[in-house]
Design a protein that fits this description.
This protein is α+β, with helices and mostly antiparallel strands. It contains 5 helices and 12 strands. It folds into 2 domains: about 60 residues; about 180 residues, OB fold (Dihydrolipoamide Acetyltransferase, E2P), CATH 2.40.50.
C-alpha cells in the first residue's frame, strides 16, 4: 500500500458518493438548496429587497391569504397543481398540467412577505396525492399514439392556508410595490409545508439507505485522501 494507492481509493470513494447523490435526480439539487440556504427573518428578507440585495435565502412562517379557495373536502387552499402523466421510457411525462393559485404570503408575527406563485414550479415540495391507472382509463385525455396499456397517473399537489411553510428564494420588489419571494440567481423558488428533515426525506425518494451510503463514501474518500497526504508528507520529511 502506498500514498498513491490510498489517494486513488479516496478519489474512487468520492466519485461513488457523487454518483449516489446524482441518482436522486432534481430532488438532490432542491435538497441541497433547502439545507444550505441561510435562514433569515421575514423582516430581514424585506430589508434585503428594499436595499437591492439579491441573496438566495430561506424564510418560514404561517401561510396567510384573503382569497383562499376550497377543495372537494372543504379545505382552504392557496395553491393546487393537478398533473396528468404517462409513463414513457422509465419516466413520468406530463400531458396535462393544471394550476390554480391565489395571492398568498408568509407571515411571521406582524410581518409578511408574498410568494410569487407564477415562479412556483418544480420547487414545490409537499406530499402528493396520486391515483395510478392506465391510458385505457382516460382514452379522451391520452395522446392518440399512446397504447391503452401505458401506465397513467394523476398527481395532485396543494398548499393550504392553515399550514406553515418554508420558502427559499430571492426577496424582490414585486410589480405592485410590495416584496415577494421568487426564483433568482439561477435557482428555483422552493416552498414546502413539511419540516426540513421531512422535506429532505421526500426529495430523497423516502429511502434512507442511499443518503447513508453517500455520507459513508464521502467520509471514507476524504479520510483516505488526508491519510495519503499525511503519509506522503511524512515520507518526504524522512
Amino acid at each position: 500500500m502506498t500514498p498513491v494507492v490510498l489517494a486513488a481509493l479516496g478519489a474512487v470513494a468520492l466519485v461513488g458518493a457523487v454518483v449516489v447523490l446524482r441518482s436522486f435526480g432534481p430532488g438532490y439539487r432542491l435538497g441541497r438548496l433547502l439545507a444550505a440556504s441561510p435562514r433569515i427573518s421575514v423582516d430581514a428578507a424585506i430589508a434585503d429587497a428594499r436595499s437591492g440585495a439579491t441573496r438566495y435565502v430561506r424564510v418560514q412562517g404561517r401561510i396567510d391569504s384573503d382569497s383562499d379557495f376550497e377543495d372537494e373536502h372543504h379545505r382552504p387552499l392557496v395553491f393546487r397543481r393537478r398533473r396528468l402523466e404517462i409513463r414513457r421510457g422509465g419516466r413520468w411525462e406530463a400531458i396535462d398540467d393544471d394550476r390554480e393559485a391565489v395571492p398568498f404570503e408568509i407571515r411571521d408575527g406582524l410581518s409578511a412577505i408574498a410568494v410569487d406563485t407564477a415562479a412556483l414550479r418544480d420547487g414545490l415540495v409537499v406530499i402528493p396525492r396520486e391515483a395510478v391507472g392506465s391510458a385505457a382509463d382516460a382514452p379522451d385525455r391520452a395522446p392518440a399514439d399512446v397504447p391503452p396499456a401505458t401506465p397513467m397517473r394523476i398527481r395532485i399537489e396543494q398548499v393550504s392556508s392553515v399550514e406553515h411553510a418554508i420558502v427559499v428564494g430571492v426577496p424582490t420588489i414585486a410589480a405592485d410595490g410590495g416584496v415577494a419571494m421568487t426564483a433568482g440567481s439561477g435557482r428555483p423558488l422552493i416552498l414546502t409545508t413539511l419540516e426540513a428533515d421531512e422535506a429532505m426525506r421526500l426529495l430523497g425518494g423516502g429511502r434512507r439507505s442511499r443518503p447513508i451510503i453517500a455520507v459513508v463514501l464521502l467520509a471514507c474518500g476524504a479520510g483516505l485522501l488526508v491519510l495519503a497526504l499525511v503519509w506522503a508528507l511524512a515520507g518526504g520529511v524522512a
